[in-house]
């Protein structure tokens, strides 16, 4: 009788171990940060979520179109002009999604007015609260509801700029493909 009781307890313990061990191991792996989740976006998600209205920015494209923006710095050098060119080319490269997106230059209060007058794209006036979230020389994707979705930090070389533009284009295509808004 004692031998049967021991065998039954071992079976019960083995059964509990089979079901509990995977959960315990999963908790351990996640708590120790041994697992790297698969992230496919190239830009940085803007968290906590901000929208243009809450930041005090008037949005003429509210409810209509996605916006692919570039935050114009105080002084626009050749690298800045190159980024604006890549912004235009990214819009052209969207193909069938092109009519859903408008490229805009986000002009701050310190931006050079002479440079602003020469730019061929639509302008959107931003304030200091916006530039605290998205800095100069950065790209930003804004959805039709005015939510800031992703930002692409400043890069330091032309080679990195090309890679960043490709990543921005890939992210924007995914967003447009999955979005039912705009």
Give your account of this protein's structure.
It comes from Vibrio marinisediminis. This is Cytochrome oxidase biogenesis cluster protein. By secondary structure, the protein is an alpha/beta fold. The protein has two domains: 1-38; 44-178, Glutaredoxin (3-Layer(aba) Sandwich). 43% of the residues lie in helices and 16% in strands. It has five helices and six strands, in the order αββαβαβαββα. The protein has helices at 2-31, 78-93, 113-118, 128-133, 158-178; strands spanning 44-45, 66-72, 101-107, 122-125, 139-142, 148-152. It has a six-stranded mixed sheet with strand order 1-6-5-2-3-4, covered by helices on one side. It is elongated and about 95 Å long. It starts with a helix and ends with a helix. The relative contact order is 0.19. The mean pLDDT is 88.
Please describe the structure with a list of short key phrases separated by commas or semicolons.
182 residues; alpha/beta; Glutaredoxin; 6 strands
CATH class of the largest domain: Alpha Beta
Radius of gyration: 25 Å
- The number of distinct β-strands equals 6
How would you classify the helix and strand content by structural class? alpha/beta
* The CATH architecture of the largest domain: 3-Layer(aba) Sandwich
Report the order of strands and helices.
HEEHEHEHEEH
CATH topology of the largest domain: Glutaredoxin
- Integer tally of domains: 2
**Cα distance, first to last residue?**
73 Å
Sequence stretches where pLDDT stays below 50 over 5 or more residues: none
Helix content: 40-55%
What does the main sheet amount to? 6 strands, mixed
């Amino acid at each position: 009788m004692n031998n049967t009781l021991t065998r039954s307890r071992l079976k019960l313990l083995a059964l509990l171990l089979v079901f509990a061990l995977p959960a315990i191991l999963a908790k351990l792996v996640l708590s120790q940060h041994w697992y790297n989740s698969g992230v496919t976006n190239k830009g940085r998600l803007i968290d906590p979520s901000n929208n243009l209205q809450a930041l005090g920015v008037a949005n003429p494209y509210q409810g209509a179109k996605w916006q692919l923006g570039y935050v114009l710095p105080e002084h626009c050098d050749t690298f800045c002009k190159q980024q604006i060119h890549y912004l235009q080319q990214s819009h052209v490269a969207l193909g069938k999604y092109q009519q859903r997106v408008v490229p805009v230059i986000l002009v701050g209060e310190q931006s050079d007015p002479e440079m602003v007058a020469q730019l061929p794209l639509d302008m959107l006036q931003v304030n200091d609260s916006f530039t605290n979230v998205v800095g100069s020389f950065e790209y930003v994707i804004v959805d039709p509801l005015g939510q800031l979705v992703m930002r692409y930090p400043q890069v330091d070389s032309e080679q990195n700029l090309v890679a960043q533009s490709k990543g921005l284009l890939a992210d924007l295509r995914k967003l447009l493909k999955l979005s039912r808004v705009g």
